[in-house]
Amino acid sequence: MIQNLADGILVGSVLSLGAIGLTLVMHMLRFANFSHAELLSIGAYAALVFDAVFAAILPPLAAKIGPLSMTWALALALLAAIAITGASALLIDRLVFRRVRSKGSELSMVFASFGVAMIVRNVTGLLFGLGTQLYSRDIVFAVVVSRDPLLLIKPDQVFVLAAALLVMVALHLVLTRTTLGFALRAVAENPTLAQVNGVNLGRMIALVWVLGGGLAAIAGVFYGLTNQISPMIGRDLVLPVFAATIVGGIGSVYGAVLGGFIVGVAANVALAVLPSGYSPSVPFLIILAVLLVRPNGLFGEARA
Asked: What parts of the sequence cross the membrane (predicted)?
């Protein structure tokens, strides 16, 4: 049970990063973007490509960072993946969502997001194959933290959790201490009033897409660092990410963070009492429970 709890916290940190971008998009643009989880896949594969490129150009970058399986090349590739995924999210909005938004309804946006998800998933499989891939094939041994109860932690897991928390703290500071953060929050709360006060709505929408894409890229790379990469990443994570968003409350960054940890811990702790095949149903149950008890989520507010 303790091991499942520790694994759940790690998974929760990844889900939180994915849920933050989704909750901002859902709150600002008022539609459920089912293609958001595919951005994690784009980020993971972009990092895989640039990891190989940087290691080939500068072989010393192929060295591992301390006890981690992560190399210096992958660290640089992460930055490239953030830029590419943010640009991809913005491009998808320009080519698809903005056009649908100007002519269709919110329901049309949801259907369009399903189409985008299928396209991204199949293009990824076409380019990289349907098999799983790894950032590193080196074996990183887990450290025995406790023998009774048994608790094993890998250095990569500690790094992912710490790095994810640092990203969340940095985002908190941006949203609460900068003019840009105030503008983003104003647009999310009341776009019309924000425009009247001089906020460029189009620029803020673009920023939300780029920000959400960048966070998704980080989540995708961190997921790949502790698991395997495959074109099915988006399919496997879309429901847990949505569950984290709904639990926390749509529009609440802090709710998305808490929701991610709740879903991650619940899904992994359930493995201790349920067969592994039933674990994917846990996010469904969490969504239903939250919608029945608190439809607006833990930190969500009712909208008129």
From this structure: 6-27, 39-58, 70-92, 158-184, 204-225, 237-263, 269-293
Single pTM value for the model: 0.90
* Tens digits of residue pLDDT in 160-207: 889 999 998 998 898 888 888 888 888 877 777 888 888 888 888 899
Quickly name the fold that domain 2-293 has.
Answer: ABC transporter involved in vitamin B12 uptake, BtuC (1.10.3470)
Q: For residue range 141-158, what is the model confidence (pLDDT) as tens digits? A: 556 656 666 677 888 888
Q: Would you state the structure tokens that stand for residue 66, as one six-digit string? A: 């301390």
Q: Report pLDDT for 42.
A: 96
CB 24 within 8 A of CB 211: yes
Please report, for residues 8, 27, 199, 222, 231, the alpha-carbon distance to residue 184 in angstroms, rounded to integers and kept in the order given: 31, 11, 9, 26, 32
Place of tokens 């894409």: 213
What is the structure's pLDDT at 254? 86
Shortest CA distance to 294 belongs to which of 238, 252, 241?
Answer: 252
Taking a C-beta distance cutoff of 8 angstroms, is the pair 301, 255 a contact?
A: no
pLDDT of residue 304: 45
Q: What is the C-alpha separation between 113 and 119, in angstroms, rounded?
A: 10
**Rounded Cα gap, residues 34 and 41, in angstroms:** 13
Question: How far, CA to CA in Å, does 271 sit from each of 14, 146, 157, 167, 227?
Answer: 18, 20, 19, 28, 17
End-to-end CA distance of the chain: 43
Q: Is residue 296 within a helix (H) or strand (E), and if so which, with residue range?
A: none
